[in-house]
Specification:
Shape of chain A: globular
Oligomer: heterodimer
Largest sheet of chain B: none
Number of strands of chain B: 0
Distance between the termini of chain A: 33 Å
Radius of gyration of chain B: 22 Å
Number of helices of chain B: 13
Structural class of chain A: mainly alpha
Largest sheet of chain A: none
Shape of chain B: elongated
CATH architecture of one domain in chain A: Orthogonal Bundle
Amino acid sequence: MSAIPSPHRDQRGQHLRDLASAASGPILSIAVAFIGLLIIIFFMGRILPIDPVLLIVGDQADASTYQQVAREMGYDKPLIQQFFIYAGDALQGDFGRARLTGNLVWSDILQVFPATVELATTAIVIGALLGIPLGVAAAVNRGKALDHILRIVMLMGHSAPIFWLGLMGLIVFYAALHWVGGSGQISLYNMDMVPRVTGFITIDSLLAGETEIFWDAISHLVLPAGILGYSSTAFIGRMTRSFMLDQLTQEYVTAARVKGLSRRQVIWNHAFRNIRVQLLTVLALAYGGLLEGTVLIESVFAWPGLGQYFTNALLIGDMNAVMAATLVIGSIFLGLNLVSDILYKILDPRTR
Amino acid sequence: MLHGIAEKAGPATLPPEVLQTARLLSFWRVFRTDLSGMLGLGVVCVLAILAVLAPLIAPYDPYLQSLTSTLLPPSAAHFAGTDELGRDVFSRLLYGSRTTLLIVVSVSVLVAPIGLIIGVCAGYFGGWVDKVLMRIVDIFLALPSLVLALGFVAALGAGTENAVLAIALTAWPPIARLARAETLTIRNSDFIAAARMYGASSFRIIFAHVVPLCMPSIIVRVTLSMAAVILTAAGLGFLGLGAQPPSAEWGTMISTGRKVMIDHWWVAAFPGVAILITSLSFNLIGDALRDALDPRKG
């Protein structure tokens, strides 16, 4: 082989270097944000109005017992040191035990997490499939009746309390019309019938060849995912419309039309091509928003996911579980931000 | 944000206070033409009046239980029916508007000064103050605000005051960022340089000159976030972490109505409609404000 690198390999090296430099900035700032998240959550665990040591020993305990328990819990150390102990434990996945289940918080979270991912992913697919075409349609028909109707539909999605939409959906589609399954991920008689492989009930039931259970799971998934999907349709549609308007008012669009290209070609091959990168960012943000939405929706539908685990922990003030769930959701948020930042830098040549 | 309009409103030699008034006036002229924005503003005004007059208008005592008339459907005597304890839902809705508006106002009163001071300090002093403060703002902006608010309420204990605190804790960063941007444009103007030459202290310049000029944009930004505040507060109430029963709060009412909703839809339905109308109105106002500030986008 010749010692001179082929132009092809050189190009690839350059490309990889570009990727690395594009990723390093966002990774650094996300790392700082992650430390910030740890500090905020640590602070959250320390502002309890009740003395956590007193909670365990009771008010009858004498001073020496109190001090012993405080020492065991690490509360006698300076606050900075306490923080480093907490951060070290958290990074190793050690969040202590949950009061509600008695299990390790981390194994609880791994248990419930797939259900939330299943719900949120279905919702984002609905949101993208509806929101992007509707947003484009609204921008193309700007100021016409269709634009106004879509604006109202999207504003409603922005303004309606999602938990209330869930309850109304249950009244109409479950109680009155019997179109969908009710609360939970699956009917009671189908519980624990398929072996857990991926944790996604729809996939697991298909793997086990149980099509009946699959359709049962789908009928339970449709309503919560549809309502979450509606709220992300509102967000994605609004953003798509505004991005498209920015493109459609530019001169190259007029030029392309003058050149004799059809409307459809200009809209999809020119204007839409230019907003794809921005849309990826929006999808990442929308997915983050959905994770927040799942907290309320899972509580409405008794969906056995992270959101319900979080609310149950909130209601009994189980701070181990609350802090861990906040850290997990916060980290996913930061991860999504990171991914969208890097994608933006890699795919949009103007940012290089 | 408002400076584009300022340039049109008058020559730059006018004193800043006059420019300020001119800016607001021309801004109002644009806003007034927006039909949906004016509709939202009208609804919010009506709501505020209803909230103030609730004790006079409400047909029943919102806390009066009547076990002989529980779960009555909507009728002429009870516009929105009665709940599981026989309380009049319509009266409770009226009183609920007080709680909601109180939360919105409290959050705004807490958040605006905090965001303003942090943002103005970052913008005015620059350097490492700016770097540190803006880094903190970025961290908060990158985090899920509802989840953080929920976590803080769990730590502080459920209740309206703690809900307000928790929402405020997660709502100040966008305001700080805006105040910083505004300050950066004001900081280098001649009248600030003049004030500095007269020997005015940083404290005086910030509070006498910079802060008043930032106010209009801050007020606009606070209005933009009100719909989100209402939804978060209702969500906290629904999860049982906000206002506690028996108090008349819309989110809490939905959560108690939930137990009977399959056969008695009105108990949970009407409070949700109230939340929807209120947050929709604030969103309409917000949209109109945004359009008025940036006429390029429709």
